[in-house]
């Protein structure tokens, strides 16, 4: 995944990595300055939490979620890291293949910078945000503990030999999929986004 993520760095046409919005955007070139995938210090059972940190001059509408979705295919071994090269080459792949973008829940916009503009945050606003985030964290931890307790109360059903196991949907390679209708994307400003999956 990191090998594929490095391919996003630099200026590229990201029309195959966004949700189309032809009415608002005609330029799909964006400049990614940094894209790192790293492990966080948290685990849940056998699952590790990882972070994708992306820094760029601007992002198209849902660009980060689309990039993450393609990286998930790479991480699952369903696509080669080279698929990123093919999707960034608009002469080879002029229209976005149909695929579901990554969920929005773990997406965190960490900061925005604008030329000649400095943002200030009062200590009261900072404290209110900290208290809000602590409260949200507490509520989610409580919910997790409740679900964990509920799981311990359930018995594991015996497998039924008469039931057929569910078949996994076969992965269709991205470059073999039907393309999206020919439309475009939405512009933002200088941003850094961080995604946790």
TrEMBL record:
SUPFAM superfamilies: Pseudouridine synthase. Gene3D superfamilies: Pseudouridine synthase I, catalytic domain, C-terminal subdomain. Transmembrane segments: none annotated. It comes from the Eukaryota. Pfam families: PseudoU_synth_1. Keywords: Isomerase, tRNA processing. GO terms for cellular component: cytoplasm; nucleus. It catalyses: uridine(38/39/40) in tRNA = pseudouridine(38/39/40) in tRNA. InterPro entries: PsdUridine_synth_cat_dom_sf, PsdUridine_synth_TruA, PsdUridine_synth_TruA_a/b_dom, PsdUridine_synth_TruA_C. One of its GO terms (biological process) is tRNA pseudouridine synthesis. It is an enzyme of class 5 (isomerase). Its EC number is 5.4.99.12. Residues 4-115 form the Pseudouridine synthase I TruA alpha/beta domain. GO terms for molecular function: RNA binding; tRNA pseudouridine(38-40) synthase activity. Belongs to the tRNA pseudouridine synthase TruA family. This is tRNA pseudouridine synthase.
């Amino acid at each position: 995944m990191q090998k594929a993520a490095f391919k996003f760095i630099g200026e590229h046409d990201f029309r195959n990595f966004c949700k189309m919005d032809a009415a608002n955007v005609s330029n799909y070139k964006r400049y990614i300055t940094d894209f790192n995938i790293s492990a966080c210090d948290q685990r849940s059972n056998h699952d590790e939490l990882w972070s994708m940190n992306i820094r760029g001059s601007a992002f198209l509408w849902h660009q980060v979620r689309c990039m993450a979705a393609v990286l998930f295919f790479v991480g699952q071994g369903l696509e080669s890291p080279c698929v990123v090269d093919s999707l960034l080459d608009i002469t080879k792949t002029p229209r976005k293949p149909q695929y579901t973008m990554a969920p929005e829940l773990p997406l965190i916009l960490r900061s925005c910078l604008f030329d000649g503009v400095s943002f200030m945050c009062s200590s009261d606003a900072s404290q209110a945000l900290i208290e809000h985030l602590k409260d949200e964290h507490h509520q989610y931890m409580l919910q997790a503990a409740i679900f964990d307790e509920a799981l311990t109360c359930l018995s594991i059903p015996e497998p039924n030999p008469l039931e057929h196991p569910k078949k996994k949907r076969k992965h269709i390679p991205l470059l073999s999929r039907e393309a999206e209708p020919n439309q475009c994307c939405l512009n933002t400003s200088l941003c850094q986004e961080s995604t946790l999956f």
